[in-house]
Amino acid sequence: MLDIADALHQWCEEGRDFAVATVVAVSGSAPRQPGAALAVDADGEAVGSVSGGCVEGAVYELCRESLRAATADPEGRGDGSVVERFGYSDEDAFAVGLTCGGVLDVMVTPVPAAGARRAAFALALAVAARGEAAAVARVVEGPAELTGAALALSVRADGSITGGLGGPSALDATAAVEARALLDAGRTGTVEIGADGSRCGQPVTLLVEASVPPPRMLVFGAIDFASALVRAGSFLGYRVTVCDARPVFATRARFPEADEVVCDWPHRYLDTQDGALDARTVLCVLTHDAKFDVPLLQRALRLPVAYIGAMGSRRTHEDRLARLRDIGVGELELARLHSPIGLDLGARTPEETALSIAAEIIASRRGGTGLPLTGAHTPIHHDASPPAGRIGSVA
Questions:
Q1: For 66-90, what is each residue's pLDDT tens digit?
Q2: Is the pTM of the predicted complex or chain greater than 0.70?
Q3: What's the CA gap between 114 and 71, in Å, rounded?
């Protein structure tokens, strides 16, 4: 649900009644992961997606039906969440199924303006829409009276929570602890706790959706390749910063699509980012000039970031490695460096090179091989990312 926070926050501000369908579990080759959502308001307007098109029509109708039932409730409680399964497991051969062969479990929850869950949903949506970290936990399996109940929290909260699961206070407290743990990790997933808040007893399964600020892409070197890479990074959802020590090149006019343009020495700027980088951050060093590259990479190779690339020919790369060894960079750190950067697409233009770099970043973060899927026997979707820190060097 938090993946469409901007639109849903607006709906909350406008006082709209809506229902939201959220993927809570997947198996097989499903196109969307838990947390993906489709929402429908009382007028039939829809935002988001749960399957990339395979089951959207059926889920849309479930949302409308759920919302009609909720708004007809004279007490305005907005109860009535249901979990439906879609896929080839349906006995009816003509039922809606996933053409890719996977199975989706989707929870449909009505969220009328007068509903009991509205406050928790509104808080999480507002925080996520501001680009801040937020989490919402919902009961997807357990006692019928708890299904769909929600609580929300944000990293700025003082320990209090908004909403509740409808059980004992210990259940809310345990759910908040689990939600905060997933929020700290920036992950969406399910957890199982006891209905009384313990680690045993009648089980309750929670879907915890976490929304964290966009990952960062730092592009060092204000060259034409950087301009194309900025566009690719923005398209992939990164918050992109361009940094170059040369004021004639590091200008907003040259990089209008960057979120930030900084005129400073790359290594000096990187030193100011302590605490602002995380395991999702990618660094692309396009300066291919030793006076910029070496001090920057000396620092960067010791950071727990997701990916680092450094542009240059193979000869430049070998010279760079020698310079880094001379200033004490160890072999384990240098072993993280892959050369050349990007996948072998035969790229020539800045746009093609940017695509090559972006493709390698995706493969590195998601555990892909970079090989063609045609004729391969590898999974199309990878369940887990490899450890952070695969690093590329570029030709």
A1: 999 888 764 544 467 888 888 754 4
A2: no
A3: 9
